[in-house]
Amino acid sequence: MTLLSSAPPGAPATRSAPPAPGRTPRRKQGGVILAVPALAWYLLFMVGPLVAIFVIAALHWPGMLQPVSFAGLGNVRTVLADPVFTDALVNTGIQLAVALPVMIVGAYMLGYYVAQRPPGHRFLRYLLFIPGLISTPAKAMVFYAVLSPDGLFNGALNKAGLGSLTDAWLASPSTALACLIVLDVWSGIGFTAVLFAARLGSVPDEVGEAAQLDGAGHWRAMWRIHFPMIRDFVGVVTMLQFLWTLFGSAQNVLLLTQGGPGSSSTTLSFLVYQKAFIAADLGYSQTVGVFLFLAGLAGLLTIRRVFRQNY
Fold this sequence. Notes:
Blueprint: H1 26-56, E1 59-60, E2 69-70, H2 74-80, H3 83-115, H4 121-133, H5 136-147, H6 152-159, H7 176-200, H8 205-213, H9 218-229, H10 231-256, H11 268-278, H12 282-306
Antiparallel strand pairs: 1-2
Helix pairs in contact: 2-12, 3-7, 3-10, 4-7, 5-10, 7-10, 8-9, 10-11, 10-12, 11-12
């Protein structure tokens, strides 16, 4: 199909020649060239390490400078027969099952409250954002000062006449994991609430006004009207917090409990670190990394299905 080109008045119309078949427009060629560095970066630093995890998981590699031999499925059998791996798997499941719902529901409620612009809401936004500005070692030091045997929490219990309830919270098998979960929730709930408040702020005011005219209270408006409108965004935030909790828990475990007592607070991400950098068993470590990757993939697909994501 040919197009008539514009011409001055009185001049004869000329026909523009169609592009030759098989030739790519220069603009598209330039776009492809500009995308090559980003694609190379992605393949090298994203796809490359992912492939390396599966390759190393099939090797017997007892340290960086040690000889390497092919192990096949031997590492998988070793990992599945290890009770420490079972404990890490259970602990990770408990951590996700408790921290993720508490964080998302609590953050959404806080975000909804801030989005209503109560008195001092600007200051409240900054206050909720503070845990996200504190480094992980600093947060760990705060929690250690609070939960150590002679820390602030036990001191408060003694002052209140509840000395029988004091405990070495971070050194007790029954409470070490719970303390880490509390730290995860405290670290993430404020930042997530600010994200929810920003998204809820884009909902038209007429929606809330119409809900009030229909007699809906804040609770009903929050869950029956506003929540369905930002359902996709809730799914995205849930995915982000799921990944952060699943893959980022190793740093808190390392700083506060070292996975103990025993393996009562060992998580999958910490087990990857422990076997790689302490036990120098790279094959075992990356086999756990494969299980961790599969758990993350399954979790993302589940969250996507629950929130009916369209991407």
